[in-house]
Amino acid sequence: MLRLTQTDAGIAALLQTGTGPAASLLAAWSAGGGHWSLSPPAPLRGAKLTSASFGPAGAAAVVLTGNHAETIAAAAGPWRRLPALPPATATLAPGPGGGWDALAVHRTKLAVWRLAPGGGAWAATQTINVPIEFGSSG
Question: Is the pLDDT of residue 115 over 90?
Answer without folding.
Answer: yes
